[in-house]
């Protein structure tokens, strides 16, 4: 699929709906504080797009689960991440449908309930992202085993920058020069009566 397997596709899809849903809730909160209709309208349209993106992220995540090699710890985290994602999608899908049919006819009390539910959904968005981050950064879920093994091998051998190598070599070169003996004249040679070729080290009498 355009060079993407399911895990990579899920990684590409899950950030945008997360950002959209968070932004939608922030606009709704801003509308409630300022009582400006334009903020509520913007939040409504962002919510619709975010809910559709969330559905795509969940579908790709369910497919990715079947293509990721994992052990028991990852399996448990994956189950929690999946449950949170489904709850998040459910909350925002309900909100999107609710507002499609009731947006222009809501009373203040009903709108307050919708806003409260949006804040609850925002909490589930954050929790879903936290568990997704644990899967990737703490357990390397989605990274093929050969790639992971190669990376571990390289880390074991260590990595050196060119500057580090130069810094290491410089003291060794200085030490070698310090240990190189200077020129010594044979016994009985009159002082300063001879010349040395260019580049000859200073003599020691």
Can you put this structure into words, describing what you see?
- The protein is mainly alpha-helical.
- It has a domain at 6-141.
- It has helices at 6-13, 15-34, 37-65, 72-102, 108-138, 145-157, 162-179, and strands at 183-184, 203-204.
- Strands 1-2 form a two-stranded parallel ribbon.
- α2 (15-34) packs antiparallel against α5.
Describe the structure concisely:
The chain is mainly α.
Provide the descriptors you would attach to this structure in a database record.
205 residues; mainly alpha; two-stranded parallel sheet; 7 helices; 2% strand
Largest sheet: spatial strand order:
1-2
Number of strands: 2
The N- to C-terminal Cα distance equals 80 Å
Percent of residues in helices comes to over 70%
Q: Globular, elongated, flat, extended or rod-shaped: what is the shape?
A: elongated
The Cα radius of gyration reads: 34 Å
- Mean pLDDT across residues: 82
Indicate the structural class. Answer: mainly alpha
Q: Mind summarizing the main beta sheet?
A: 2 strands, parallel
Order of helices and strands: HHHHHHHEE
The unreliable regions are: none
């Amino acid at each position: 699929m355009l060079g993407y397997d399911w895990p990579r596709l899920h990684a590409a899809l899950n950030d945008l709906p997360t950002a959209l849903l968070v932004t939608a809730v922030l606009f709704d909160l801003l509308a409630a504080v300022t009582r400006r209709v334009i903020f509520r309208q913007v939040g409504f349209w962002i919510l619709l797009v975010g809910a559709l993106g969330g559905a795509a992220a969940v579908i790709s995540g369910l497919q990715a689960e079947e293509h990721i090699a994992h052990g028991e710890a990852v399996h448990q985290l994956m189950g929690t991440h999946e449950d949170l994602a489904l709850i998040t999608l459910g909350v925002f899908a309900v909100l999107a449908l609710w507002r499609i049919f009731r947006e222009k006819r809501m009373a203040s009390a009903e709108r307050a309930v919708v806003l409260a539910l949006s804040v609850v959904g925002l909490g589930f968005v954050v929790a879903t992202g936290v568990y997704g981050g644990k899967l990737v950064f703490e357990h390397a879920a989605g990274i093929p085993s050969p790639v992971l093994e190669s990376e571990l091998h390289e880390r074991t051998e260590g990595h050196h920058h060119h500057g580090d190598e130069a810094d290491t070599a410089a003291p060794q070169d200085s030490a070698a020069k310090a240990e190189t003996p200077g020129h010594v004249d044979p016994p009985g040679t009159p002082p300063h009566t001879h010349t040395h070729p260019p580049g000859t080290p200073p003599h020691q009498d």
